[in-house]
Amino acid sequence: MTLRDRFSRRLNNSVSPQRRSHSRRLRSRKRQLSPSPSSAQPYLSYHDILLTWEDIKALRDDWLTDSNITFWEEFLEREVLVKYPQAKITLLRPSMTFLLMKNKDTDMVRSALPDFRDITHIFLPVNDAINVGQAEGGSHWSLLLVSIIDGVSFHYDSLNGSNNKEAWEASKRLSSVLGKPLRFHYLPDSPQQENSSDCGVFVCITMRHLLVKRLLAVNAGQKISMSMAGKAIDSAGARKEMLKIIENLRKEGERRRLTPSNTPPRIE
Fold it and tell me: Is 245 left (phi over 0), alpha (psi -120 to 50) or beta?
């Protein structure tokens, strides 16, 4: 029995049966008056991504879901990249990275992925999931940034290179799809997480920093450092920021409604 369980039992034993019964009735009445939404209930439809209540709960204090990271990439494309029409940068979705890593039919994968012929850089969220039949598998996220023009894959891992094997595999498979050699480079000076659940947050914030502060901040052909050394990431603050963005979009979706509806607020 855990310390929390023992404490709860001692607390319950110190309360009279009448008070416990009354407390249970109050909690039951409260649940009836304000039922909590199911985890699969839609929360926000944003262009090509649907966020559920489960995704929102994960973003608050848990391991980020595929949908959390997919939303962030969609948001960066719609709100940031759209302002730089000259940029040739692709934010590959987690599902596409997983397909790239697990499907060995290069021709089929090439046909399923975006056209990379004019692309200079690709961001790939990397997951260590093994089971292709399990949704939301794996236990760690990291980020791979591929510079096609330089022939280099930069790996940013907030857990001391735990995903180096997976990132190297993604780089090798992408090299086959591109028909071009890629040199794998792990950056050990990447910001490090302090718990077991912030890896996805580090991926999202590192991705935005590299996109906005590095790739989009220089002229074409200008050399830049891809190191994240000295960059501090406030994971708690980042979660709040991402939640605020989603809440503002949800309110905007509600405002745009012409008639009341049971469907989730939508931005398109």
Answer: alpha
- DSSP assignments along 65-107, one per residue: PHHHHHHHHHHHHHHTGGG-TT--EEE--HHHHHHHHH---HH
Give me 89's structure tokens.
Answer: 């940068």
Q: Closest Cα to residue 76, out of 113, 84, 40?
A: 84
The contacts of residue 108 (CB under 8 Å, 6+ apart) are none
**pLDDT tens track for 217-257:** 987 667 889 999 999 999 999 999 999 999 999 999 999 88
Handedness of CA 71, 77, 83, 84 (dihedral sign): positive
**Neighbouring residues of 13: CB distance < 8 A, sequence distance ≥ 6:** none
Beta strand segments in 140-207, E: 141-147, 152-156, 183-186
Q: What is the pTM of this model?
A: 0.84
Report the catalytic residues: 140, 157, 199
Mean predicted confidence (pLDDT) in 150-171: 98
Residues 6+ apart with CB under 8 A from 196: 63
Residue 214, judged by CB atoms within 10 A of its CB (0-12, 13-18, 19+), counts as middle
For helices 66-79 and 94-102, what crossing angle results, to 10°?
120
Q: Phi first, then psi: what are they for 196, rounded to 5°?
A: -100, 5
Taking a C-beta distance cutoff of 8 angstroms, is the pair 68, 93 a contact?
no
Euclidean distance between CA atoms 155 and 198, whole angstroms: 17
- The strand order across the sheet containing 42-46 reads 49-52, 42-46, 266-267
